[in-house]
């Protein structure tokens, strides 16, 4: 798929397409992307965004007021349980710290965006947080599987996160209001920040997999170019000591070590 074909896709279609997800193709796809085109896709998605409030639906759902215990389906997805463990830690009144001693509080997981069941291919935000009590943060969490395989490329994480930011920004009036009423946060930003977050082994996999190609420098260049546009600020973070226990039945997912959040600035 070449640049002209990518241009015809919506932002949601883009992050779901094979060249973005595929291990051997995503490095080349980075080079094919146009930042100005991403800006237009972002604006179009905002315009067409589902509006939950118009159907009487909340964003911060009451079922998330208690610890993440895996749900009735007892999901075995490692990503969900790590997200739950991070969320549960903040539910206990704790916070994480980013470089520069910025405080990150995670206030929700599996944050809903659909207004109707047929809002096709739109998922949920892995984690929704607040930086320094006033900046909303959309977190796209990726993990390595126990088999050693990776399902999502860093490029997919970036584009999926941008799509979710567009949907949040389109509904910011309602989301900001809910956050203030429910948690007391008064967001002062017009748009959320985007954080691509993953344990060390996720990043190491892509750095050490020859078939992934030379992707990191172009990836950083893409983020730098996006930073010159009105799109959200993007950071890519590695979780050191991302050890946790799975939720089982009534036992919540739980961190077993104190994690450290560090920027990914070089090959691990």
Describe this structure as you would to a colleague.
With about 270 residues, this protein is of the alpha+beta class. It has one domain (about 5-265). It has ten helices and nine strands. It has helices at about 5, 10-15, 20, 25-30, 35-45, 80-90, 155-170, 170-185, 200-210, 215-225, and strands at about 95-100, 100-110, 125-130, 135-140, 195-200, 235-240, 245, 255, 260-265. A seven-stranded mixed sheet has the order 1-2-3-4-5-6-9. Strands 7-8 form a two-stranded antiparallel ribbon. Strand 1 (about 95-100) and strand 2 (about 100-110) form a beta hairpin. Helix 5 crosses helix 7 (about 155-170). It is globular, with a radius of gyration of 18 Å. The chain starts with a helix and ends in a 5-residue tail after the last strand. About 35% of the residues are buried.
């Amino acid at each position: 798929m070449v640049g002209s074909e990518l241009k015809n896709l919506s932002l949601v279609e883009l992050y779901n397409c094979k060249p973005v997800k595929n291990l051997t193709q995503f490095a080349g796809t980075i080079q094919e992307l146009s930042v100005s085109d991403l800006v237009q896709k972002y604006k179009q998605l905002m315009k067409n965004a589902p509006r939950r409030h118009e159907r009487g639906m909340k964003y911060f759902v009451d079922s998330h007021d208690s610890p993440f215990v895996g749900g009735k389906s007892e999901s075995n997805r490692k990503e969900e349980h790590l997200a739950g463990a991070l969320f549960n830690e903040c539910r206990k009144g704790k916070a994480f710290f980013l470089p520069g001693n910025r405080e990150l509080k995670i206030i929700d997981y599996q944050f809903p965006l659909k207004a109707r069941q047929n809002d096709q291919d739109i998922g949920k935000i892995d984690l929704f947080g607040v930086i320094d009590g006033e900046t909303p943060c959309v977190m796209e969490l990726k993990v390595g599987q126990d088999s050693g395989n990776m399902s999502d490329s860093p490029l997919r994480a970036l584009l999926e996160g941008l799509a979710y930011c567009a949907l949040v920004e389109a509904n910011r009036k309602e989301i900001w209001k809910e956050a203030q009423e429910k948690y007391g946060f008064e967001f002062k930003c017009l748009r959320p920040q985007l954080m691509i977050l993953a344990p060390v082994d996720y990043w190491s996999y892509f750095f050490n997999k020859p078939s992934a190609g030379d992707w990191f420098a172009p990836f950083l260049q893409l983020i730098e170019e996006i930073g010159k546009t009105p799109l959200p600020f993007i950071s890519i973070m590695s979780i050191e000591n991302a050890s946790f226990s799975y939720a089982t039945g009534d036992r919540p997912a739980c961190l077993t070590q104190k994690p450290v959040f560090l920027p990914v600035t070089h090959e691990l």
